[in-house]
Amino acid sequence: MQPTNNHTVPNGLTQHRREVMTPLVYFRTFWMDYLAMAVLGALGLGIYFLRPAPNRVFPVYFRDGEVVNPEFTYPYQKDIIPIWLAALLAFIIPFIFIMLMQIRTRSFNDVNTGTMGLLFSLITAAVFQVFIKWLIGGLRPHFFSVCKPNINASFVGTGQGFDGLLFDRSICTGDEKQINDALESMPSGHSTAAFAGLVYCSLYLNGKLKIFANYRPQYWKFVLFYAPLLGAVLIAASLTIDHYHHWYDILAGAVIGTIHAFGSYRFQYASVWDYRFNHIPLPRVDAEHGFDYHLDHLEESLSGSRKGGWRNGQIHGAPFDATATLSMVEMDRQLRV
């Protein structure tokens, strides 16, 4: 883990003594994070079971008896991938890669950082989307099959709005829980979970394997980077086959999951795309000192790659800042002489 005490050495540079990560130190450092996750998880679960907040109105028939919105008339059937399975896959696949990466990195700090970042992404994105489901929602493609409206074309004109064409859930005769769920289509929880976990997985793989870095890696690494994204798309797209979501529900969930994955990764690691630092966990124990983005960190924080200079200390900058970085390295070398 990161250091907590410091002392000054003769050349004017500040060094820090490293505190041993005992269970007590771990609890003292991270208890509030775990408490926040538990509170958010309980909040999200509680909201998930609430009755939808808005009283949505919808047309059923035109005056000639034609169904107004056939996109809400699809048959109700079991989802191909249940939400619990989507959430499990979104966690377990990245976690497996985090653990496999320890074959080379062998760092408890990285396991803890990577896993907590994954949990941050999944939990925060889930709470984000359930709030939108509860307060905004929308009609699922199988809404009328679940609603089972007690109305026919002769009732047109007795509802609300212009020409009395609109009705609310009071005309439904189906199961109340299914109706509640059918009124919460936007955004897709499956898509949110899949993209929150699997986009995070791709970012983690890029940081550790240096897929987009200062050298051209093997092609299988390029494929591996996109494999979790394919999994996220397949999980999300399956919802159009089982008629649980519209395309725009899926897109909204994918956007929510993706922005939380990027935010959570940057929250935990020194960079998202800068290949010199995007594998290094940010300090938590000694946070008041921060991370100084110095290339000396590369000597202590190994990535999963053996190429590109990570194992021989030859990393000298990145696009757009290579000159400045080289100047700082040279200045530091002069100070050390």
UniProtKB/TrEMBL annotation:
Q: What's the superkingdom here?
A: Eukaryota
GO molecular-function terms, A-Z: phosphatidate phosphatase activity
Q: Which residues are listed as membrane-spanning?
A: 25-50, 81-103, 115-136, 189-207, 219-241, 247-267
Query: What is the topology of this protein in the membrane according to its UniProt annotation?
Result: Multi-pass membrane protein
PANTHER family per the UniProt record, alphabetical: LIPID PHOSPHATE PHOSPHATASE, PHOSPHATIDIC ACID PHOSPHATASE BETA
**Protein family membership:** Belongs to the PA-phosphatase related phosphoesterase family.
Q: What is this protein called?
A: Phosphatidic acid phosphatase type 2/haloperoxidase domain-containing protein
Q: Please give the organism.
A: Adineta ricciae
